[in-house]
Amino acid sequence: MQNQSPEKPEAENITMQIKLLAFGHLPKFKGGKQHSGLANVAWFIANRLNQMSDTVDVVFCATDVHKSKVEIDGLPVVGWNMPSLAKAALSVPFRTISLLSSLVKLCRTYELPLLRTLSKAILLDDAIKKNSPDFIHLHGCDAAIYIRSGWFKAEKTIVTIHGIHGAEGPKRLSQLEAAVGQLNLKALVFVTSQVSEEWVRTYGQPGSKVIVIPNAYDSSAFYRQAAARKEKGGAKMMYRLVSIGSVSDNKGQSRVVEAIARFQTLTRKYNVEYAIVGDSAENESVKQVLNLANDLGVLIKYIPFLPPNQLRELLWDADFMILPSLKEGFGLVFLESIAAGTPVILPKDLPICQEDEIISSDNAVFLEDASVDSILRFLLEIPQHSFVDADVALSLSDHDWHAVARQYSEILLH
């Protein structure tokens, strides 16, 4: 498949102002409820595009902000509450009935909750009606539902795909992905080449123009410590590891705990401290990992949530950020860690490892796979892996969100 990569627009060619409506979740540190990388990506693309005031005006329609309208960092954000949602539904009863009629069939086909999906569709439809956007930006395979049930044309919609469930995933999700591939969109954007290629192998060539735009990091929040060059890893008596992300079997925090437990029975030449950042202490997966650590005698530090500035400082103190995921669409936290000068530990077959000029031996240690055995092998070889924070940070170039926004603006302009 021939992927098309948009070139940066030249300022003198920008002669129009475009209005874009972005739809999705907001990250917790910007007033939303999400810890996910997807929410971060949706926010930063919209925010940076809006900052290109000579090109694009953006309104963010947020499903997890319960105010009718707020402004966050200069970006207008449209949210909802029950009175505003009821008002929107009753102001255009014909459109609401039509939405409901379409969604009853779609939700039955794709096994989606009707009331929640209808609420989001009404929110999106009302935001379209009030803002009259030229284009809409949606994220994930749920886009098929909102495009098929609404009035906005698919060819005026950009959909960004952050990962693929494929034939091995839940049937309803693979059906949704196949449905997105059949749409004639303005553009179907993938965050890695590997996800794009797997999509084509699974569902065939999409009906839309395909573009690969890797994610980026927030250079205002993640940067190396302004001090003397600091060694990460190398020969020492204590190593600090941290995992950042949702706590789940896929992300592999429990496998790190098991590997540390086995490591502790094999050698006492040096120690390993482990911290986990992500989710809520009430999350069942978190409870399972904490109980496992207690049963195996592994001391870990658990932190539910940290804003970017505190996350950066935690990374400064860590030797490595380890996330042995079974599957990732991209893995934004890998970029953030490297930008902060902290090398990452990850399985060698993750999609981000296949992208040019991102993950390399200059900033990462590659695990053979996501297994406990591979993690244990790394722990036993830690002294052999030595990095300098300044060199790690410098290995990541031209991957900030402004560069990504310029690529999205090029899609909108052509």
Quick structural summary:
With 414 residues, this protein is α/β, with parallel strands linked by helices. The chain is built from 14 helices and 16 strands. The strands form 3 sheets. An 8-stranded mixed sheet has the order 3-4-2-1-5-6-7-8, sandwiched between helices. A 6-stranded parallel sheet has the order 12-11-10-13-14-15, with helices on both faces.
Topology:
Blueprint (H helix, E strand, L loop, with lengths): L17 E7 L12 H15 L4 E7 L6 E4 L2 E4 L3 H10 L1 H18 L3 H18 L3 E5 L3 H7 L7 E5 L9 H12 L4 E4 L2 H11 L6 E3 L18 E3 L4 E7 L8 H14 L4 E7 L6 H13 L3 E4 L4 H10 L2 E3 L9 H8 L4 E4 L16 E4 L4 H9 L5 E3 H6 L6 H13 L1
Parallel strand pairs: 1-2, 1-5, 2-4, 5-6, 6-7, 7-8, 10-11, 10-13, 11-12, 13-14, 14-15
Antiparallel strand pairs: 3-4, 9-16
Helix pairs in contact: 1-14, 3-4, 8-9, 8-12
3D structure, described in words:
The chain is α/β, with parallel strands linked by helices. It has helices at 37-51, 82-91, 93-110, 114-131, 143-149, 171-182, 193-203, 253-266, 284-296, 308-317, 332-339, 372-380, 389-394, 401-413, and strands spanning 18-24, 56-62, 69-72, 75-78, 135-139, 157-161, 187-190, 210-212, 231-233, 238-244, 271-277, 300-303, 320-322, 344-347, 364-367, 386-388. The strands form three sheets. Strands 3-4-2-1-5-6-7-8 form an eight-stranded mixed β-sheet, sandwiched between helices. Strands 12-11-10-13-14-15 form a six-stranded parallel β-sheet, sandwiched between helices. The chain has a two-stranded antiparallel ribbon with strand order 9-16. Strand 7 (187-190), helix 7 and strand 8 form a beta-alpha-beta unit. The two termini are 21 Å apart. Mean pLDDT is 91; it is low at 8-12.
